[in-house]
Amino acid sequence: MSTLEIRDLHVSVDTEDGPKEILKGVTLTINAGETHAIMGPNGSGKSTLAYSIAGHPKYTITSGTVTLDGQDVLAMAVDERARAGLFLAMQYPVEVPGVSVSNFLRTAKTAIAGEAPKLRTWIKDVNTAMERVNMDTTFATRNVNEGFSGGEKKRHEIVQLELLDPKVAVLDETDSGLDIDALRIVSEGVNRFKENGDKGVLLITHYTRILRYIKPDFVHVFVDGRIAEEGGSELADKLESEGYAAYVGAGAAGAGA
Amino acid sequence: MTVTETAAAAVQNAVEGRVASHLHPTGSFAVAEHPVPTGREEIWRFTPMKRLRNVHGDAELVAGGALFQWNTPEGVRAELVHGEESQALRGVSGLVPNTRYAARVLAEAPSTLLVDVAANTEVHEPVLVDVKGQSADPAEAGHVVLRFGLHSKAVVVLNHTGSATLAQVVEVHVGDGADVSVVSLQDWADDTVHLTQHEASVGRDASYKHVAISFGGDVVRMDSNVSYRGPGGSAELLGLYFADAGQHLEHRLFADHNEPHTKSNVVYKGALQGQGAHTVWVGNVLIRKVAEGIETYEQNRNLVLTDGCRADSVPNLEIETGEIAGAGHASTTGRFDDQHLFYLQSRGIPEDEARRLVVHGFFNDIVRRVGVPELEERLMATVEAELAKNVSKA
Lengths: 257, 394
Ligand SMILES: Nc1ncnc2c1ncn2[C@@H]1O[C@H](COP(=O)(O)OP(=O)(O)OP(=O)(O)O)[C@@H](O)[C@H]1O
Ligand SMILES: [Mg+2]
Hints:
Chain A has helices at residues 46-54, 78-84, 101-113, 119-132, 150-164, 180-195, 234-242, 250-254; strands at 3-15, 18-31, 35-39, 59-68, 71-72, 86-89, 96-100, 143-144, 168-172, 200-205, 218-223, 226-231. By secondary structure, chain A is α/β, with parallel strands linked by helices. Chain B is globular, with a radius of gyration of 20 Å. The complex binds adenosine-5'-triphosphate (ATP) and magnesium ion.
């Protein structure tokens, strides 16, 4: 049983005009077995939250805490966070030239498990994970994400999710750029991961369509670096029909317009 | 001496009508015609002249410093030749020196290391020539001739190690239809100064691969030049270098497309780390008026691993005919990419391991293209060892 706890998190980025605050106090608890959806308009800070949890050097945590089972995540290096059981499926997975997928996956698995996987079963595991998301196994010999289509990159993230089997997965717009078949395949991957045990899932998305495949227990509406509203999956249905208009520009623009 | 002068005159005639390219002045075998360079000359402007121990100028060149060792697979003659035989080989590649040090090597080297591969012979194992420097003092001159016969196929590896102050000329004659590789490893000790010119003349329909690999030495400066003796010749000029703190590694290429339907493909990759690490890559390609239907591509990629390094990269293409099949160049110098590092680390891979993966990946394709399996492992191991230095310093 794991718990990821985010408390009053404030995050800024460096800009030419000095630091700019993006997250303005985010509090969120993800318990094992729970799926939380974060929805919000472009630029509201969803990816900032995801990257801050993973430890991307671009973001500065100005205050607040993030803990995984009581352990201080913010004090850990990026790789330590992953070894502690966090996983971030990125909105824009990075191309790493010269590093083959198979070498990458084996190195990552070895780092996380603390020992090299048994060769025979490992190759089988990799092939199975790839076939499940309809990726040809020849991808294993290609360089990490290099020349992958948008959809292939997302499916490769799911392959990693299944193989690395973290405690808590943050999925940043894993659904965007996928056609309907790929969306179903990717969703099935996430659901398999959830069935593997008591996993926490933080699903960041723009659209409600993925929520037809992955049922969230909680929905959080993210606006301007804060959670503006929270609810159950019914909140997603409301967003589906009404959009974010009610939240954007809240009091000001909303006034009677 | 007459032999030399005849060769000189013949080449001089052949290059008549060359363009007024500032980079390739008409050469001369006469040492007196080459003033001591000051460092302000175009071709010396990147080189730290003060560290050359005057080997570019008037340092006394003493014979017999470095130790040579080689194997002689079947079909190969390898020998240190002296006297007239050695004299007759000077300029055999068509080289007319355009630097003082090269002129001095041809005038003063007491002998020539000759590797002769018989015509129509396929040599199945690499010819390995070890050049082991014994001391950085005194300076010495080395003349090497690699002569590949008509339709021969062979690989020659020059392996430079130890301490030396060496002015060197390597002349390569590639026979018509031959398919050859010359690999030069500069794996010197920290105090070595090495000025070297590799001059190749590629025959009709011949393939020439030249690989420069520079890891060690205080200053290494190599000119790797190619010209052609007939149509259909192709040259692949590859390079791999790794500069540490304080090292100066300079590679200059010159593909002289003086014949139609010739090809050149230049790929150099380098990594730099540590305070004062400096690399220079200058890729000159000249496409002469007669050189219709040629293809050329050159690229240089540098990976800067730490602060305090400097990579100069200068591609230079001079085109005198519109009738070319393809010409292009690319040059990039990138910082070690934080995004790559973040992605790998976010999958649990520790930072030093992530760096290793990326640097391996960076060099991997070029190591494979070297095409000498005996060397691949050693090259990767050397890259590894270089990286380990950085990690332990960090
Ligand atoms: N270097 C920077 N300088 C200024 N603003 C920045 C910088 N980096 C990020 N931002 C801003 O931070 C805000 C939050 O960005 P973030 O990527 O977290 O949004 P998001 O909610 O994930 O959006 P999307 O739905 O488009 O993915 C945006 O307004 C963005 O422009
Ligand atoms: Mg985003």
